[in-house]
Structures are given as C-alpha cells and as structure tokens.
Amino acid sequence: MRAFACLLALCLALAAPAQAQDAATLVADRVEVRGNQVLVAEGNIEVFWRGARLTASRILYDRAADRLSIEGPITLTDQGQVALFADAGKLSADLQNGILQSARLVLDQQLQLAANEIARIDGRYTELSKVVASSCEVCANNPVPLWSIRARRVIHDQEERQIYFEGAQLRIYDVPIAYIPRLRLPDPTLDRANGFLFPSVRSTSQLGFGLKTPYFLTLGPSADVTLTPYLSSSTTTLELRYRQAFRRGDITFEGAVSRDDILPDETRYYLFGKGDFDLPRGYQLSFGVEIASDDAYLLDYGYSDADRLESSVAITRTRRDRHTEARLSHFRTLRDDEVNSAQPTIVSEYMWERRFTPAALGGIATLNFGALTSYRNSNLDGDGRDVSRATATFDWERTEIFGLGLLATFSTGLAAEFYDVTDDSTFDDTTTRLMPEAALTLRWPLSRVSETGVTHIIEPVAMLAWSRKDPEAVPNEDSTLSEFDEANLLSFDRFPGTDGNEEGLRLSLGLSWTRHDPAGWTIGLTAARILREKDFGTFEAGTGLNGDSSDWLVAATLDLPNRVDLTARALFDNDLTVSKADFRMGYGDARFDIETGLLILAPAPTEDRPDRVAEWAMDADWRINQQWTGSAEWRYDFEAGRATSAGIGFGWENECARVDLSLSRRFTSSTSVRPTTDFGLSVELAGFGTGGQGGAARRRCVN
For residue 11, which of 123, 108, 117, 155 has the smallest C-alpha distance? Predict the structure, then answer.
C-alpha cells in the first residue's frame, strides 16, 4: 500500500544514498559499522526522508547479504500523518518485496487495516493475512468498532488502488451481519472507481418498500454513468445518471424508466439534462432537457415537484456594454387546470441590447432589439393562438446632483412593436404600436449620525412618469402577473414583460427610514403609494395596483448579524383590507437554522388566481450534538384548513459511518396525483472511496 511503498523507498534511500536528493537522515542513540559491511543503528532511531519520518528501536543493514531488518515498535508518519505501525519487518535485496509482522496500516487517514502479517509483492501488491478493516476509531476503553470487515486475506493493488477481500465478513459491533466470499472496494485515495455504491431504502404508500442499489461505472477519464435499480413490491425501476466533461464544457443527464402498479399498462419515464459550453468569441452555449411520460410520474417517485417542463437551447454573450441572447424552448404543463394544446408549446426568442453614452446628451442610453415567436398545437380559434413579435426600444437617463444633495434623474424612452397573430379572431392579424414615455425622479437622502455612532438615513422619493399606451389591442403572453414592491416603485411599469404597459400620468411617492447600529444590526421601514391622473383599467382588483391610487405599500426589514434576517411587506387599501402580504424570517446560529414565511394573496382571476391564497411554509435544520442532526419542513394552506406537505429527517454521523432517515407526507391530491407518504433510509460507511472523513469530528482516544 502507499504507506508500505513509502517505507520501502525510505529504507532504500537509507541503504543506498547514491544521490544527495535521495539521501536519508539517520538519528540514533548508537550507530555502528561492522567490517564495512553491516550498518547497525540502535536506540530511539529516527529516519527522515522527503517529508516521511520512521521511528524504530533497531535497524540492521547487511550490505553483503543485501538485506534490511527493522525491529519495532515501528511507526511511519508521512507529512505528519500516521500511516503505518508494526512490530518488526524484513525487506528483500531489491526492496520490492518484504514482510511486516503485527502491522496496522492507515489509508488516507480513514481506513485502518490490522493484520498478523503484511507482505509486499513485486513493488505493486500488498498482501495482508487475518485482517480486520474499519474506519472507526478503536480505543482501549472502546475496543469494539461500530463496523468492521474481517477477512481471511486482503490484497491491495497500489497501481489500480483497489482492495480485494477474500472470505470477508461484515460485522456491526462485532456481530456478523453478512458473509461475502469475494469483495472488491476502492481505497480512500481513489476518486472514481467501477463498483456498487452504498444502497438506500425507500418506502412509499403507493410503491411500497423498495431498495435502491446504485452501480457506478467510469467511462474514461472524463465521463461516468451511475445505474440504480430500484425494486419494490409495486415497481421495477432503473435510474440513470450520466456525466461527461469536455475541454470547453460539461453535460449531465438524469432519468429513470419504470413499470409499476400505479399505471400497470404503461411504461413511465423521465429525462432531465443540462449542459454548458464555451464557444469562440466569448459566446456561451447552454441547453436543458425536461421530459416526463405523464403528469404524475415526477411526484410519484419524488424526482421533482416541477409543474411545468421546459427544454431549451440558448446561445448568449455578455460584455461590459452589450448583451446578445438567442433561445429556443419547448414547454409542457403538468397542471390539471391547463391544457398543453392551448399553452405556448414552442417559443423562440432573440434579444440584443447595447448601452452607451451619447456624446451630446451624456447620461446612459440603451438600445434594444428583440423578437419572439410562440406556437400552440391547437388550431382552434383562441386556443390555438400563435404570436410573432418584434420590438425596438430606446431609453435614456441622466442623473444630476443639485444643492443640499438632491438627486434628479431625467429619463425618456420610445418603444416600437410589431405583432403578427394567427388563429385568434379577437385580435387583428397584424398590429403596430408606438409608445413613448418620460419621467422625472427626485431622491433626497438625508443622513444623521448620533453621538453613540448610530446612523439614521431618511430618504423621500418621488417619480412623476408619463407614458402613452397604443390603443391597438395585442395578446398578453408575458405580462399576466404584476408586482408592486420597493424594487419597482420607481419603474415605468409594474409588468415583467413587454405585452403589458402602464399608461397615463402617475406619481409614485415613497419614504424610507434606515437605522444602522454600530453593534452591527440594521432596521428599515418603507411606505409608498402610486397616484394616477386617470384609471385606465390596466390592473384589476386583487393586484393592489387598481384604481386612481394604488394600495399602500408598507415594508420592514431587520438584520441582526449572524442571527436574524426578517422581511415583511404588505399592500392594503384605505379600509386596511390586505391584497398582498409577505412575511419571511430566517434565524441561524452554530446549531440551529430556520426559514419561515407567510404569504397572503387576494383573488385576481386575470393572474390565474380565482381564490384567496394564504400559505405558511417552514424549513428548519438543527445540529443536536456532534453526531446527531435533525430537519423539518412544513407547508400549510389556511384556506383549505390543512397541511399540503410535511417532512422530518434525522441524520447520525461519526468518523466512520453516516445514517440518514427521512419521513415525508404530501397531503394534496388532483386528478393525476394522489396523497402519499415517503420513507427513506440511507447508510454510508467511510473509508472506501468516499472522498473524505465526513462532517463529524474524529473521536480521540482517552487513556
């Protein structure tokens, strides 16, 4: 093994110091040369060579016989880490073969192998007899490891970095659990090796008790595949994960194929994939694939909770002053209340944007060109509407600072749009729109520092904006949702896309106060409202933006360093009727983390929200002690008066093993998805190609 090879090389350097860089340093109580043929070192021996340190009680080198004998106790440390212990050792003439008696070997600070005898063969193989292998700490007061593998013989291939067990017996607290005549496992220094990974148990109310046994297969130095048979009383499933790295990018695919009792006459499957590549001239190529055989497969097997699938390919390039993007996407909805034939199935997009500084005007100007085409499978009037859109926009803004720190921003813009609509008689076949806009924004930040070092910042803001919306009606494909918060208070409109636009003269008013404490914590409050000269019916009730004046926006933030992060936001009218409310809080310290949130939304049919929404969500993680961790998640629907999902999990970990246990329940149901309970159990033993020692600290033996 590696430690044994280091021992041989160290002894070789000691026995034949032909070159200065290979010379070893020997320190001993007594060194004797007998007849120029025999070198004997005795008492507190230390040998140093290339960062390795060997200690022994006696070393004898016979030049005539070309034999090296070492008497222990022998300890070899490599780069400060203990690698090998032995009572005695003998090495052959060429130092490629040797034997150590009563030896214990430590691989990569993880796996320990104790054997009656260790033999080195041909400089490559290490053979151990009567072996006990474990990555658990064994102490005098705790001599029985949590788990161990006892074997009649173990062979380690140093080149392939594989460990072969013969007559292996897996024991838990020294109780035999399983007998395996032959077993091959990677040593801890190997990152990738063919073979079985640790199995996991999954049990659900729909699929019953099942076992997953993954098999990892390398496909050259830059690709691998993991095949995971999943067998239970109600399903036969094969899961797959494929990864490959290229010189300019990488790809990953995950999928599964199933035959089960839920849909006994169908083959169910899914495939998710993604990839990113660097192209010449700074371009980036990315793609994503999301495919599922039916609406419920992803939830039934716990692969994903996505309710819309998107497969796309995109080419992008972003520079300091410009951005280019072209994307082709395919969408599929899994929602019960949506029909795929009436939803945009294929969407192609192109966008080019450049920012520059006009020489005559100063400020910042933005020029944008875009094109979009959406296609539906249906040919019915309305349901099969296909839309093509081309847009060109020019925006300019400039900020000046006036007396007393008043900031004034002048902005203007012009948008030209062309629409081509088919299979929908509600709209003209072709429509051209021209929409100008202009605004003046004033900000007056006021700051005061108290004698105690507390900083108060008060900032009133106002934006007087005007825009003209072309009266020609166009389909609203990308602006069905609206939002009103601190981030878009000073925006021209509150729509996320191009199809929706605010119009008329309006005044946005806001006032914010922020307190920064020298102790490191910060609190902030914001109040805002939008006043309109005329209500054009752009927004409906429930959005908080309808009418001549919007609802009041009130927001608060609290940030306690390394402890609490709180955000609260609400929209309510003069009668204190809440249209939207969002409360989020996070708390974290060395042992406990929690994220919780409450969301309330009033009904808004145009935003596909016919009923009131009131939901509470919570996620928590708790480090109970050095070995135990716990987690919990909760989703509750106040309108339905029941939980939508809940889950709890526990993890136990020490230096040599990790156990994860989880239990979750989904309470919601639909025409394609039924409530289900999911139980999961996974066990991992450290020391066999696991790539680390785990999160738990290693125990220390106490004498």
Answer: 123
Query: What b/e readout covers 606-617, taking b as 16+ CB neighbours within 10 angstroms?
Result: eeeeeeeebbbb
Say if residue 17 is preceded by a cis peptide, omega within 30 of 0.
no
pLDDT tens-digit profile of 467-515?
A: 998 888 899 888 888 889 998 999 988 998 889 889 999 999 999 999 9
**Long-range pairs, 320-326, Cβ under 8 A, ≥24:** 321/354, 321/355, 321/356, 322/352, 322/353, 322/354, 322/355, 323/351, 323/352, 323/353, 323/354, 324/351, 324/352, 324/353, 325/349, 325/350, 325/351, 325/352, 326/350, 326/351
Positions of the chain with pLDDT under 50: 1-5, 8, 12-13, 16-21, 93-95, 690-695, 697, 703
Neighbours of 40 (CB within 10 A): 16
Which residues, other chains included, contact 247 with Cβ-Cβ below 8 Å and sequence gap of 6+?
Answer: none
C-beta of residue 656 within 8 angstroms of C-beta of residue 687: yes
Contact 617/586 with Cβ under 8 angstroms?
A: no
* Predicted pLDDT of residue 145: 87
Q: How far is CA 560 from the centre of its chain?
A: 26
The model carries a pTM of 0.81
Instruction: Please report the pLDDT score of residue 554 as a whole number.
Output: 97
Beta bridge partners of 86: 74
pLDDT of residue 185: 80
Q: Alpha carbon of 340 to those of 211, 291, 337, 378: distances in Å? A: 35, 14, 10, 9
**Is residue 400 exposed (0-12), middle (13-18) or buried (19+ Cβ within 10 Å)?**
exposed
Question: Can you read off the two tokens belonging to residue 162?
Answer: 């594989």
Q: Which of 645, 634, 640, 639 is nearest to 675 (CA)?
A: 645
381, containing H or E segment: none
Q: What distance, in Å, lies between the first and last C-alpha atoms of the chain?
A: 30
C-alpha distance from residue 303 to each of 150, 227, 256, 289, 291 (Å): 38, 15, 9, 14, 12
Q: How far apart are CA 491 and CA 463, in angstroms?
A: 9
Q: Which two tokens stand for residue 335?
A: 């929602």
CB atoms within 10 A of CB 187: 23
How many whole angstroms separate alpha carbon 672 and alpha carbon 152? 55
The confidence score (pLDDT) of residue 92 equals 56
Count H helices and E strands in the chain, helices first: 2, 41
CB 91: neighbour CB atoms within 10 A? 23
Helix, strand or coil, per DSSP, at residue 121: strand
Interacting residues of 269 by C-beta distance below 8 A, sequence separation 6+? 255, 256, 257, 258, 291, 292, 293, 297
DSSP letter string, 360-398:
TT-SEEEEEEEEEEEE-S--STTTT-EEEEEEEEEEEEE
- Which of helix, strand or coil describes residue 539? coil
289: helix, coil or strand? Answer: strand
Q: Report residue 563 as tokens.
A: 């402890």
Closest among 110, 129, 215, 114 to 167, alpha carbons compared: 129
CA 452, CA 520: separation in Å to the nearest integer? 13
When computed from its CA atoms, the radius of gyration of the chain, rounded to whole angstroms, is 35
Element (H, E) at 160: none
514 contacts 583 by C-beta, under 8 angstroms: no
List the structure tokens of 605.
């049919």
Provide the token pair at 131: 């072996």
Tell me how far apart the alpha carbons of residues 289 and 272 are, in angstroms, rounded to a whole number: 5
Tell me if 493 sits within 8 A of 468, measured CB to CB: no
pLDDT of res. 695: 47
Residue corresponding to tokens 């790809």: 251
**Amino acid, res. 577:** T
